[in-house]
Amino acid sequence: MNFNRCIYFAIPLLAVGITLNVSAQQSVPDIQNEAQDAAMSPELSKAVMPQIVRLSYVQGDVRFSRGDVDKHDGGAVWEQAAVNLPLQTGFSLVTGNGRAEIEFEDASTIYLGENSVLTFDNLTAKEDVPHTEMALLTGVATLHLEPDVRGESYFIQTPTDTLHIGFGDRTDVRVNSYLDAVGLTLVQPTRGAGGTGEEDSR
């Protein structure tokens, strides 16, 4: 693996079952096109469905937008987030002086720290197999991910890299996203809504 970027790694990646792609040309599976096709085909519409993803914990200033943050202009509408808010493809979540926890169908969670931006680029399930694509544009997120359906995948993009967590991998790691680097730190595994997200590093 060739690491030409200035990236700080606090842990060995193999220890947490994360695949880190440093090539900007490498793409993730395009489920969005299949979801669009499903809207036109009754047969496909039964196979590709939105996931059930929600905010399980909110503290302080947490806001969301119903559109792609990259396409927003100065007039974007940001709404105050609340517990049990359903999250959908295209939503963006922003924390100022606040924190949030996201819960997925397989009971995996992501804890979003202060001053962070997380976009939900793809929250779909094809034939009951979840596929999740997100982008941590800036800030810190603690991942407690354990895909338990064969074929299930999580892709978390940062400005420099893409993390992939697949079926059979259990990942408990804190991701710090910077404009020119990404930092990864192992954390103690925790589950359940309302956690502090301040786990001790191993």
Tell me what the structure shows.
The protein is mainly beta. The protein has one domain. The chain starts with 18 loop residues before the first strand and ends in a 16-residue tail after the last strand. A hairpin with a 4-residue loop joins strand 12 (171-177) and strand 13 (182-186). It has helices at 31-40, 42-45; strands at 19-21, 48-50, 53-65, 79-80, 86-87, 92-103, 109-112, 116-126, 129-145, 153-157, 162-166, 171-177, 182-186. Mean pLDDT is 79; it is low at 1-16, 22-29 and 198-202.
Q: Brief overview, please?
A:
This protein is mainly beta and 202 residues long. It is built from two helices and 13 strands.
Computed over alpha carbons, the radius of gyration is: 16 Å
Averaging pLDDT over every residue, what do you get?
Answer: 79
Which structural class do the helices and strands define? mainly beta
- Which ranges are low-confidence, i.e. pLDDT below 50, for 5 or more consecutive residues? 1-16, 22-29, 198-202
- Total number of strands: 13
Question: What portion of the residues fall into strands of 2 or more residues?
Answer: 35-45%
- Main pleated sheet: 13 strands, mixed
The coarse overall form would be globular
Secondary-structure element string: EHHEEEEEEEEEEEE
What is the number of helices? Answer: 2
Distance between the termini: 25 Å
Q: What number of domains? A: 1
Q: Report the helical percentage.
A: under 10%
